[in-house]
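Limitations

Structures in this collection are predictions, not experimental determinations, and the ligand pose is part of the prediction. Treat each record accordingly. The example that follows, with adenosine-5'-triphosphate as the small molecule, is included so readers can see exactly what is and is not provided: the inputs are given verbatim, and the output is the predicted complex.
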Amino acid sequence: MRSRVLGVVTVAAVALFTLLPLTTTDPARAMGLPALLDRSQLRGLTTISMFVVLTSAWNIIGGLAGYPSFGNVAFFGLGAYATALLTDPDHGHLPLGVGLLASPLVPAVVALVVGFPLLRLRGHYFSIATLGTAIAFGEVINNMDFLGGATGLFPPIIRSDLLFYYLMFGAAALTVGVTWWIMRSRLGHGLVAIRENEEAAAVLGVDTTRYKIIAFVVAAALTGLAGGVFAGWNSFVNRDNVFPVDYSVQMILMAVIGGSGTISGPVVGAVGLEALIQLLAGGSGVYTQILLGVLLAVTVIFLPRGVIDFVIGRSRLTLAHFRRSLRQTSV
Amino acid sequence: MSAPLLALSAVTKRFGGVTALDHVSFDLAEGELVGLIGPNGAGKTTLLNCLSRLYRLDGGSIRFSGMDIAKLGRHEVARLGVGRTFQVVRPFRSMTARENVAIGALFGSDRARLPPREAFRVADEVIDLVGLGGRGHLLVDELTVPDRRHLEVARALATRPRLLLLDEVMAGLNPSEVAEALEVVKRIHASGIAILVIEHVMQVIVGICPRVVVLHFGKVLLEGDPSTVLKDPRVVEAYLGERYARRVRGSRGDG
Ligand SMILES: Nc1ncnc2c1ncn2[C@@H]1O[C@H](COP(=O)(O)OP(=O)(O)OP(=O)(O)O)[C@@H](O)[C@H]1O
Ligand SMILES: [Mg+2]
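Predicted complex:
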């Protein structure tokens, strides 16, 4: 019953977000359909889709496997640079399609290599090491002349907000689909077992090293794809716009507030928070930051398993529940 | 005579200055039921951790089914057929009891490794076998303390092990619960699985184990059939202290 409702909601949402942007096209106008979105709203939806990719991909390593990476933005940056390098007229000068193919591959290979040492660490050691690694990658790239140094790279300008919307929305749908598949498979069960107790998982036969690496690589590839699409969309890539540490923090906030370790939680968190951020964008950035902080605190205290748990009806906003969740989170 | 299922030879494990296991050697045959007893801190849990390759040895070797465990990964030992419980239970807390057990059937020994749907079916069978029937849908936090012990056993059993290592699964249970747990152990053994049962309370083991190994300060004090072993003055002394042993000897008039 509940799963059918969820299915209907999913299909409706996908249909809405596929069809709605079409009302901005010239044929739709010619047919006399009202434009339900303007340019800037379409760009807003593209950014929301981008955060759905980042947050849902983070959820695979952070939420399912329980390895809270603070450095996932590095994969976004690497994907963006891979696409930019291949498409920039001064460098690869290849079509965008080819450039996009490289965007998941480069971060995946990097994740495979750095994953072996990083995933031996646990808890905040892992978080700090991933944060440091991401910063280091940004610095190194910023100082590489063949990557344009601090000036960056310039993929050719393609003036089609609709194309990049669909690419980003497609990446988001892919990420959610991959998460759905993982959670049904042996891999997903193994990852959750690792999160709950790694040694217990190992003595039950879970190849913990391999599973953690797979989760990290898959998360990196999907995050990189979003970076690649962003590079083409923005037609300008440098350290400051594709390696911002803020993104790493933002995807964690979105996943935790929405409900990490679930399929819908990160989506709800990304859509809700990014929409909120855009609505508040007129005002001062400081208020946005404060609001995000307060939201995080409130969620962690009252809904430690995220908003989605509350929506589905598995948690209630009562004081008794609050006390119980405190006991659970403070073990 | 065929090679033993499990062969420990001069197994040694140190923690800094403490030698937790000191040249421990004994064998265990296919399908055999052996009790491992010893006072607090004797090294029983440490031995189990070495057997499931959570620890690396400082000396000696462990062979299971002819394979040197030192050369395997933790999950490979499990896949060869070594299943275990943890003395301090380690459930997957976000999962139901049934999901916990299904992890064993999804992964586990090479004979297990079922696809998700079948793994859940096996989980239901195993849950009934250990006496958790009807409570599979409960979250771990909703289970009673004895049921959490049963869950540890069920999860290990779902891996279809050839050797099951039980670390004090009966500690803290009341007499009727102990009797139930013993029935479960007997049933598992009857299905052909070799078992190494650790118990701190030796009376538990006397009834069911044809052979016991006594560990004391990391060394094998002696091994044999339980009635002889438990009467041995060295065992009495290890458990109850020297003064008590002397008093027993004195009252018998042979000290
Ligand atoms: N991880 C560890 N680090 C340091 N010392 C340890 C560690 N694990 C065990 N020890 C020490 O090794 C010795 C054996 O401990 P072990 O837990 O194996 O005993 P045990 O026989 O299982 O006792 P109990 O009946 O209390 O469970 C003890 O002296 C203990 O303090
Ligand atoms: Mg112990």
